[in-house]
Amino acid sequence: MKITTVNTPDGPFTVLADAGVVLASGWTDAPDVVAARVRTPDRPGAFEVVATNDPDLAAIIEAVERYYAGELAAIDDVPVRQFGTALQQVGWAALREIAPGAPLSYARFAAALGHPSAVRAAAAICARNAPALFVPCHRVLRTDGSLGGFAWGLNVKRSLLSREAH
């Protein structure tokens, strides 16, 4: 397991990956905070802090840089691995299908999962999303259009949505 941090317009962005597959990421320079996003039984016991040009992370960091340079689709093909229930897996896959600039409400997201009454479950899927940005849970909003929550802060969520709206 390797972890690195790159500077972005939204602050430091840290990525935990295994053989080029993102397990967790987020806007912090604290590796332990990012690693803690992986559920306990699947959390790495140790990881190596590496430079952003490490061969196992270079393509991932390049995708982040391209995203912030305006190429919003750059994050779409970055491989991720998440650990969770069958419904969570379906939900995380569905999050990757939400187009930039076209956010969904939690209610519409629940309906897209085939469970229109499971709005809280849809919100929980977003809350437990470990590879932030690559699995864009920031693209889900409250029914009234307000931001709702975001593990990395509402300022980051607002910034990402603003960037994707253009």
Question: Could you explain how this protein is built, in words?
Answer:
With 166 residues, this protein is an alpha/beta fold. The protein has two domains: 2-75, Methylated DNA-protein cysteine methyltransferase domain (Double Stranded RNA Binding Domain, 2-Layer Sandwich); 86-165, Arc Repressor Mutant, subunit A. The protein has six helices and six strands. It has helices spanning 31-35, 58-68, 86-95, 106-112, 119-127, 154-165, and strands at residues 2-8, 11-18, 21-26, 48-49, 104-105, 140-141. Strands 3-2-1-4 form a four-stranded mixed beta sheet. Strands 5-6 form a two-stranded parallel sheet. Helix 4 (106-112) packs across helix 5 (119-127). It is globular. The relative contact order is 0.16. The model has no long low-confidence stretch (mean pLDDT 94).
Instruction: Supply the CATH class of the largest domain.
Output: Mainly Alpha
User: What form results from the Cα inertia axes?
Assistant: globular
Order of SSEs: EEEHEHHEHHEH
Low-confidence runs (pLDDT<50, min 5 residues)?
Answer: none
**Radius of gyration computed on alpha carbons:** 15 Å
Number of domain units = 2
| Biggest sheet features | 4 strands, mixed
- Overall strand count: 6
Strand content: 15-25%
How would you state the average pLDDT, rounded? 94
CATH superfamily label of the largest domain: Winged helix-like DNA-binding domain superfamily/Winged helix DNA-binding domain
**Whole-Å distance between the termini?**
35 Å
CATH topology of the largest domain: Arc Repressor Mutant, subunit A
